[in-house]
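Morning, I've got a small favour to ask if you have a moment. I owe you a coffee for this, so here goes:

…
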Amino acid sequence: MDDSEALGNSNPSDRAKAKKQKVVVIMGPTGSGKSKLAIDLASHFPVEAINADSMQVYRGLDVLTNKVPLSDQKRVPHHLLGTVSPNVEFTAKEFRDSAIPLINEISARNCLPVIVGGTNYFIQALVSPFLLDESFEAMDETCMDNLSGTTPLDKSFIPEKNSSNNNYDLLKDIDPVAANRMHPNNNRKISQYLSLYARTGVLPSKIFQGKAAEKWGQVGNSRYDCCFVCVDASLPVLDRYVEQRVDCMMDAGLLNEVYDIYDQNADYSRGLRQAIGVREFEPLLKTPVIEEICKRERELTKDSRREKGDKVSNYDLRELLKLSSDMKSITLMEEAIEKVKVNTRRLVRRQKRMVNRLQKLFDWTIHYVDSTDSLSSKSDDIWTGQVVDPAVKIVRSFLGNNESLSSTSVTSNSSGVKILQRDLWTQYTCKACGDRVLRGIHEWEQHKQGRGHRKRIASLKNKSQALCLVEQ
């Protein structure tokens, strides 16, 4: 029996699945080795990489964002890497709209599209039929058509610029259920919710709680036949690695890069300036000694055309700062470096939690490869044996339609609970942890299992105080 006959005897859902383009997704926390694995897979498959890191898509800050240098790409085509203007906001919707035609082109060349990145909501934008959280404009029209009970259009609900408090109060007035779902300071998402209502008259909570939300996030409803590979490592090893990487970035000219884009009047909530490692250096860059150093160096190079804001790549700003006698600025620099390390460690934990959430909440089947030993030993042999070889087997089985390893096979949900019934909306407040707000039962259960929460509960028990109180 040939392939066409086999497809003819299969049920409609199998035929629909078989028609989907195959895509490999490499995910995982920062520093785990995602980009390296994608390049190494090219030794076994005709790979083209599509970057799904929300900061690496921008031009500039190549050191800070840890872009793979051209010399290390080993002639593997890389897409959406350093191609977007650093001053614009590149949303998940825009990533999706850019990645879809790239996937079509790569597949047409009989190559394997490999999505690489730690920005998981970018990956969700490809997997889900619409973006539940990031941008309502990304929703399919069919999802909008399924909504009922919408409110009349009212342009008076257009969000105000630079007025997060007023916008949040406005959202609470028109849709308290949606307002309850987010932090009051999340102005970007609040503005998105208000803009949706102003444009369509649709209450955001109607989208989240209506028919359109039932299939959101489910891998079985994906545009593509996806194989998810997560490169992971133990937290202690990742912590040490990312700290060492920050030190290496400083050696490679990180401070110069940040100075080059520094503008105290710029919007640091948009574009490339959101990257970890930019805002942390702002107190240092505001000091007069920095401009004095750069001015002096420009004069020494006898380049009178260089003005404030011109690139300083001809000299090492960090070393010149160390040679200065301004101990305050040196202290600010060391504090900024430590903040970058702390915030990067926090990012690692958020990324790990998000991958776990995708797997547990949305039934994604994710194959894990462990890079712990290779990061610790820096051994190429260990990397090949423990990361590359297992990943090659996973991808080869996926391409061979081996259902036991195909990541698009949906993990069964023993409870049989639909997403709509999984409590994505209830807001929980943990009194023991300083009134920390958790949204949804999944986040709440994860929080209760966390080491920090358990230590605080133990402390409260020892002091004969109340256990963690929950307000809903």
In short: The chain has 20 helices and nine strands. The radius of gyration is 24 Å.
